[in-house]
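Recall from the previous chapter that SMILES is a line notation for molecules. Here it describes nicotinamide-adenine-dinucleotide.
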Amino acid sequence: MARFTLPRDLYHGKGALEALKDFQGERAIICVGGGSMKRNGFLDRAVSYLKEAGMEVKIFEGIEPDPSVDTVMKGAEVMIEFQPDWIIAMGGGSPIDAAKAMWIKYEYPDTTFEDMCKVFGLPKLRTKAHFCAISSTSGTATEVTAFSIITDYNKGIKYPIADFEITPDVAIVDPDLAETMPQKLVAHTGMDAMTHSVEAYVSTANCDYTDPLALHSIKMIQRDLVGSYNGDMEKRASMHNAQCLAGMAFSNALLGIVHSMAHKTGAAFADYGAHIIHGAANAMYLPKVIAFNAKDETAKKRYGEIADFMNLGGSSDDEKVKLLIDYLRGMNDDLKIPHCIKNYGPDSYPTDQGFVPEEVFLERLSDIAANALLDACTGSNPRQPSQEEMEKLLKCCYYDTEVDF
Ligand SMILES: NC(=O)c1ccc[n+]([C@@H]2O[C@H](COP(=O)([O-])OP(=O)(O)OC[C@H]3O[C@@H](n4cnc5c(N)ncnc54)[C@H](O)[C@@H]3O)[C@@H](O)[C@H]2O)c1
Ligand SMILES: [Zn+2]
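With both inputs in hand, we obtain:
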């Protein structure tokens, strides 16, 4: 038996934020990030819509990018005091993910972070509050997914919380919120979405319900991401939908080792002054992982189907895999994303000498590989790497060398 879970309601299209006017409840807490929602007037609008719906509203702001366990615990305390019956998370993946984890702690104050990380092991939520997610970036699709990614900065590791219990009750996908994204954010979140679709399509948990969502979103991202990056707001709106469809696919089909590696490298070099931004990490690793996974015949055939769907040409599956890899690398060039960690600058742009020194990378490689193998996304990857293969793969992602194993 398999399960396919999505939010009960999804409001989409320009002005969808107004759906908040019809929410029923007594107290709503709005969780937001560093200020973009406030600056652009969306926070005020959300507050006034909820007040129009007769609710008392509290704001929890300042959730940082790649949110920490500490922030989750602080937010949960505020919720325990305020007793909301609606949690409204608004912004990028970071505030929405943090709010999901706060929700767990609010409903079950004795839960530890370790408890939350037991895959598909959460108790029943919704005894205290329902959850609405309003996305302002076009990538993570956390507004429709069963995941939340929280960083343990003591360990320098990102942990996914995975359970259909945290799939939001309501998602609002309003393209107005995505219009203010800076170019770099468009690039990174867009390639995150592309990775979600591609990994979902070849995942061992793919099914007839997830395949159409994955394929259609891949086609939309191929058609609209670069244009959106270059300022076309119609394409920006389309990307907001495409990433959400990709999310519906991967929330139910799961992901693969591109994400395992991105989770475990993202904060691993934070002591060298920067993060490897999630979407950029995916964009760099995806072509390498496709080459690795394509040694599995089923995965190769499915990459070939993706290439066909994208009209990339090629007559054999091997050729199609190569064309797919080339196409994705070309998108990275169009979006100014480097091809490897060695060339990943502290500002995320390509540079000759990136911020992760070679000797530091090699020193930490074995631990990072071991952690990536343990990541919740590894289990559904079509080819299971050994520790040695994972290390080799990570090296290819560092040096941009060919994957021939
Ligand atoms: N839950 C999931 O299923 C899932 C999937 C993929 C990634 N993630 C996680 O999500 C996080 C990344 O989320 P993200 O990429 O959406 O970025 P983010 O939420 O970290 O935001 C990045 C920056 O962009 C700003 N910002 C957000 N929306 C904006 C807008 N419309 N205009 C201007 N600025 C804006 C924020 O203030 C922040 O400074 C990572 O922690 C990643 O691991 C979660
Ligand atoms: Zn992702």
